[in-house]
Amino acid sequence: MEYRKIRDEGDDKETGIEDVESLREKSVLLSGAVLDNRLASVGETKTDSHRAKAKWKLKSVVTLALTILTSSQAILIVWSKRAGKYEYSVTTANFLVETLKCAISLVALARIWKKEGVTEDNRLSTTLDEVIVYPIPAALYLVKNLLQYYIFAYVDAPGYQILKNLNIISTGVLYRIILKKRLSEIQWAAFILLTAGCTTAQLNSNSDRVLQTPFQGWVMAIVMALLSGFAGVYTEAIIKKRPSRNINVQNFWLYIFGMGFNAIAILVQDFDAVMNKGFLHGYSPITVLMIFNHALSGIAVSMVMKYADNIVKVYSTSVAMLLTAVVSVYLFGFHLSLAFFLGTTVVSVAIYLHSAGKMQR
Q1: Which of 88, 122, 128, 191 has the fewest other C-beta atoms within 10 Å?
Q2: In this structure, what is the dihedral angle of CA atoms 155, 156, 161, 164, given to the nearest 10 degrees?
Q3: Looking at the domain assignment, is residue 278 inside a domain?
Q4: Structural domain includes residue 136
């Protein structure tokens, strides 16, 4: 009896020791799990932090690129003139812009084909029904892009940078008419402010004329705004008709037709000059820079939509207006008046309100 009692007590002690060891093992495992979770959490936090930094850097680069490209666009066109005239053929310059954009689209597609292979959505081969819609926006862009060279006979670079924002109004109204999209009250208010800002920036206190830009300049600016707005809305309708289609394929066909229409423009307008003086006659380094600027501007806008947001575009446009004015002071002797500064401020606020109204819609 005593032996069995002692043996039972020994078993109880061993069981107690095993329980303690088991508790220790569980405690160690639990501590390890908590430590692993903490390390994983720290790792995820560091990864998120790196991603946020990389995204911020990319957004900053895109914003800076768009601002520089937008502000230098008008400056380079004016700077490419000699004694108030274009020594080169503007139709050939426009043709090269479309060719460069087409080449950039092909390079982007080649990278996609290498990474994903050729699919139904990214192949270049297409049907007549799909491609027949592209000549309309291509023709509209042709007229608009040619007009932007001739408008500088009536406006300066800063004035052009202000007036081209009128395409926001035309785009908004055409959205309502063609795509049946409702505009918010904020957006309508932004249109009124934008018109007031453009007019204020053109006030001229040093002349008998009330506005710096003559009537012909305003007509050309309004026509350009309508063409740009209609072409933009029509192109968006084409893209959304088949949203799965790769954007580079759609751009490629748009630019192909753009090249075709510009080739016709060369034959009609500058055939003799090209035949007698050469295709690149009158070109200078500034002209080449201008061509690259025009081609890359469209790519930069696409990158903003993909990697940043619409607010970035608003800030870039606002800064570009002021930057164009400041650079024009040194290059072309532009007079930075109080009316221009106030008008630019009002236009910037109007663009911001339009963007805010679009997000609230």
Answers
A1: 128
A2: 10
A3: yes
A4: yes
Containing domain of residue 66, as a range? 58-184+208-309
C-alpha closest to that of 94 among 131, 156, 151, 148: 148
* Burial degree of 13 (CB within 10 A; 0-12, 13-18, 19+): exposed
**pLDDT of amino acid 305:** 55
**Residue 281 included in any domain:** yes
Q: How many domains does the chain have?
A: 1
pLDDT of residue 102: 92
Percentage of the chain beyond pLDDT 70 is 77
> Is residue 92 included in any domain, yes or no?
yes
Q: How many whole angstroms separate alpha carbon 3 and alpha carbon 9?
A: 10
- 211 beta partners: 203
pLDDT level of residue 36 (50, 70, 90 thresholds): low
If phi > 0 it is left, if psi is from -120 to 50 it is alpha, else beta; for residue 285 that is alpha
Residue whose structure tokens are 């506005």? 211
Q: How is residue 183 annotated by DSSP? A: P
Maximum pairwise Cα distance, the chain:
128
Q: Which of 69, 65, 61 is nearest to 290 (CA)?
A: 69
**Residue bearing the bigger pLDDT, 6 or 100:** 100
- Compute the radius of gyration of the chain from its Cα atoms: 31
pTM above the 0.90 mark?
A: no
Tell me the C-alpha distance between 37 and 32, whole Å: 8
Lowest mean pLDDT among 178-187, 190-199, 220-229: 178-187
The SS3 assignment for 86 reads: coil
